[in-house]
Amino acid sequence: MKFLFLGDMVGSTGRDAVFDRLPGLIRDYKLDFVVVNGENAAHGFGITEEIFLDTIDAGADVVTTGNHVWAQREALSFCERHDNFLRPANYPKGTPGKGAYLYEARNGARILVSNIMGCVFMNPELDDPFACAEEVLGSCPLGEQADAVIIDFHAEATSEKQCFGHFVDGRASLVVGTHTHMPTADCQILDGGTGYMSDSGMCGDYNSSLGMEKEELINRFVTKIPRGRMEVAKGPATICGVGVEISDRTGLAEKIAPLRLGARLEETVPYFW
Ligand code: FE2
Q: What is the distance in A from the centroid of ligand 1 to the CA of 161?
């Protein structure tokens, strides 16, 4: 199975680039399933239902989120209407929406996708992500109910991301980190067969600070006094993510490589596409 994950779309810059490039990628490379992180899609904070639907129209099969999931309050209601919208699974029981769901890929495979959030340096009030992973994977194991398992681990600390990857190694097809917005150079297949990348990178303007206009952020570091709003950087965008070849037999990763297309970073497409 040919799988693509695209990292956090930041504002109109990121989403316009995804809407522009994704349909061609799906067509040209015959992708079976695509997941896009959309938690920064609305002006950098959260996602609206309209943007979510546009992302699905562009070819995403699932949209994942993270700590900004509720920044646009309408997400609290529209998350209940769409099975292909995921919020972090380790919110308390009773939270609207879902954090994991079983989908059917274009090749007919059953694919479990889960969005789980780390707790180091962020959101310590959420449930333990490791215990959450046990529950999610236990309810729909790879090789039994699921032919592939994808986890978007939205976290700040690379150590937590790495330990999470090793923790579920052999039980997931891919663990991909999001939230830190910079693509890491550590794409690999772990000992047990799980594809892993600490951070997919974002889809947005890399001439920025994490996709936001750098001037105001520099000002805040220097003066400690906000001068204005944080705005999405509007320069030419680069889309970043990771491609995985998932074994139809085992559901584990056979090949993994980054994808970067656009203005600022060195372009690369998975070598096996
Ligand atoms: Fe985030």
A: 14
